Amino acid sequence: xxxxxxxxxxxxxxxxxxxRLAAAGAGLALxxxxxxxxxxxxxxxxxxxxxxxxxDGLETLVPYADPGYARLRGAIALDPATAxxxxx
Length: 88
Fold this sequence. Notes:
With 88 residues, the protein is mainly alpha-helical. Helix content is 38%, strand content 0%. The protein has a domain at 48-79. It has three helices and no strands. The longest helix has 22 residues, at 10-31.
């Protein structure tokens, strides 16, 4: 038995798929600047810190006002009176 190649419209289908995606991307690019993101009037900030190496996060930014900090850290807990206040 001799295998005969089967012709498909795959390239036409791929082209249509590409055109659909390109049109959707262009439409999104046109609409995106007009989308409003919710913004609340607040002075609160979210600080995200990535630490590498041996830095201990609980000693770099000490949660001295958290009652669990002193309880869990025990003798190595930083004294709240000597901590640098970052609240302002």
